[in-house]
């Protein structure tokens, strides 16, 4: 890999301010496009997680005692360094994750934006003065950092899922110990290198790799950890929710989705097709906010499906590092097989495969489009997390709302339509934390990202994201 700063590609961990290098006994990080081994990161466990937590607790008082502006200056420097090294970080990400280089560049900018945003937002951790209940009392509300925070992050957004947690934590005055996904730890390590370069006390941001269950066991059993933030599968999220109860840790969970994408009969069809392509095939469909079920109203169904099929056929599959690639490899064979199972199940139950679904070597899979999909098929209920667009036909708005809400998930939903009253009715009726209306792209650092129902708890990004790392303390003063 041709990097301007080759030292950013480092198979190491940062534990309690100390670098620990990986070796052949560690976890091999491979390029999903080529199978090449990029590096080995250490295989650590509970003891090192405990060490990182203890060092974080030691470093916290001095960090929390600084002014928000002083913290912001360091965070701003970290943001600048991430953007200065955007190209190297994007190359590292594409190599370990597979997404096209253009998407990696976008994710690095997106990741950096959380640091920039929270560097400023930390200055606005306002408290309150409340009119008292008695003449001889005064009531003040303070916002204080929650304490040592821990994060467990997934492989699909190797940088942004770290900064979306570490940004608000550090801005609020909390240190963080991060366990990145084993498949994509190199982006996390590169971010930590730049954080230290920015002047952050290295004990304030540890990065630990190894046994996920052992590290998570320490995160949840260690009473020093006061906040746990997780992005990943619903199954693991539920386990962590239960484990965090041991010490009643404050928790944020960003879990699975089953996003509906509804095309009403008055929609701008070209815009809807583009929105569907963006929302469905970004990161090869491996995004928790990817549309999983596309509902097209009867009046425009056939025209929409025909146009969508043309666009899906144009998508170029290849190594993310190659110019012009729209869809890179999937993360592993299990991901390929799950997508294939959803296609096979739908076809066996009467759906039509209009294009794609074929293996293209390794973990490359041709983007697929199904029509004639119904509620009985697995894809209606389960998140595919792959490049498969299943189209359902519906008649009335009420039918679309009922179908869209018939899931235990509630992360993102999308719809396209023009009529203002319909737009409001649908937006309000959808049981989701985020609704994209006439757009397939909703992610930004300035808006609250998060789900309802079994898609999680808490919000990340925006002014709401800072609250997740703050406690509210009330002072009752007799005068
Ligand atoms: N909401 C989202 O954004 C995401 C959803 N998913 C969904 O989950 C499916 C499976 O993906 P997968 O990568 O296995 O997701 P996981 O939930 O298993 O992985 C996410 C993170 O959790 C860690 N983890 C794994 N097991 C445990 C455990 N027992 N205790 C604590 N942490 C653990 C992983 O570590 P390690 O990598 O070391 O195993 C990783 O850091 C996907 O197909 C998709 O449907 C996946 C990723 C993100
Ligand atoms: O898929 C995820 O893990 C959530 C990140 C996606 C985004 O922020 O758009």
Automatic annotation (TrEMBL):
The entry's keywords: Oxidation, Oxidoreductase
Superkingdom of origin: Bacteria
Domain Aldehyde dehydrogenase: 19-474
GO BP term (any one): gamma-aminobutyric acid catabolic process
SUPFAM superfamilies in alphabetical order: ALDH-like
Residues at the active site: 254
GO molecular function: succinate-semialdehyde dehydrogenase (NAD+) activity
Residues passing through the membrane, by range: none
InterPro entries: Ald_DH/histidinol_DH, Ald_DH_C, Ald_DH_CS_CYS, Ald_DH_CS_GLU, Ald_DH_N, Aldehyde_DH_dom, Aldehyde_DH_Superfamily, Succ_semiAld_DH
UniProt GO cellular component terms: cytosol
Family membership: Belongs to the aldehyde dehydrogenase family.
NCBIfam families the record matches: SSADH (TIGR01780)
Name recorded for this polypeptide: NAD-dependent succinate-semialdehyde dehydrogenase
């Amino acid at each position: 890999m041709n990097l301007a700063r080759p030292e950013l590609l480092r198979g190491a961990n940062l534990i309690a301010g100390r670098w620990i290098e990986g070796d052949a006994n560690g976890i091999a990080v491979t390029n999903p496009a080529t199978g090449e081994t990029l590096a080995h990161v250490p295989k650590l466990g509970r003891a090192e997680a405990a060490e990182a937590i203890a060092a974080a607790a030691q470093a916290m008082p001095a960090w929390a005692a600084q002014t928000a502006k002083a913290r912001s200056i360091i965070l701003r420097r970290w943001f600048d360094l991430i953007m200065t090294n955007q190209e190297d970080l994007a190359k590292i990400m594409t190599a370990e994750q597979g997404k096209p280089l253009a998407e990696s560049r976008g994710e690095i900018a997106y990741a950096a934006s959380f640091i920039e945003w929270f560097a400023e937002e930390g200055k606005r951790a306002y408290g309150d003065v409340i009119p008292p209940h008695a003449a001889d009392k005064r009531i003040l509300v303070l916002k204080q950092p929650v304490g040592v925070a821990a994060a467990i992050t997934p492989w699909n957004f190797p940088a942004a899922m770290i900064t979306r947690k570490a940004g608000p934590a550090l801005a609020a005055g909390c240190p963080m110990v991060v366990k990145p996904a084993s498949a994509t730890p190199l982006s996390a390590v590169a971010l930590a290198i730049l954080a230290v370069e920015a002047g952050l006390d290295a004990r304030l941001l540890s990065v630990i790799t190894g046994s996920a269950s052992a590290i998570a066991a320490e995160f949840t059993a260690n009473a020093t950890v006061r906040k746990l933030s997780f992005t990943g599968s619903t199954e693991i999220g539920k386990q962590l929710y239960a484990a965090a109860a041991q010490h009643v840790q404050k928790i944020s969970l960003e879990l699975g989705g089953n996003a509906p994408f509804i095309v009403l009969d008055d929609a701008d069809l070209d815009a809807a097709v583009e929105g569907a392509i963006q929302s469905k095939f970004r990161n090869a469909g491996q995004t928790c906010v990817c549309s999983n079920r596309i509902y097209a109203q009867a009046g425009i169904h056939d025209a929409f499906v025909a146009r969508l099929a043309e666009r899906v056929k144009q998508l170029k599959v290849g190594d993310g590092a190659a110019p012009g690639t729209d869809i890179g490899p999937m993360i592993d064979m299990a991901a390929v097989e799950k997508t294939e199972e959803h296609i096979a199940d739908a076809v066996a139950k009467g759906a039509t495969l209009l294009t794609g679904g074929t293996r293209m070597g390794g973990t490359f899979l041709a983007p697929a489009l199904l029509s004639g999909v119904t509620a009985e098929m697995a894809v209606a209920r389960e998140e595919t997390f792959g490049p498969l667009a299943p189209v359902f036909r519906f008649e009335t708005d009420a039918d679309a709302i009922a179908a869209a809400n018939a899931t235990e998930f509630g992360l993102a939903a999308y719809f396209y339509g023009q009529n203002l009253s319909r737009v409001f009715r649908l937006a309000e009726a959808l049981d989701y934390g985020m609704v994209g209306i006439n757009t397939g792209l909703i992610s930004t650092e300035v808006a609250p990202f998060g789900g309802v129902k079994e898609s999680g708890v808490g919000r990340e990004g925006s002014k709401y994201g800072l609250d997740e790392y703050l406690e509210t303390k009330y002072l009752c003063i007799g005068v």
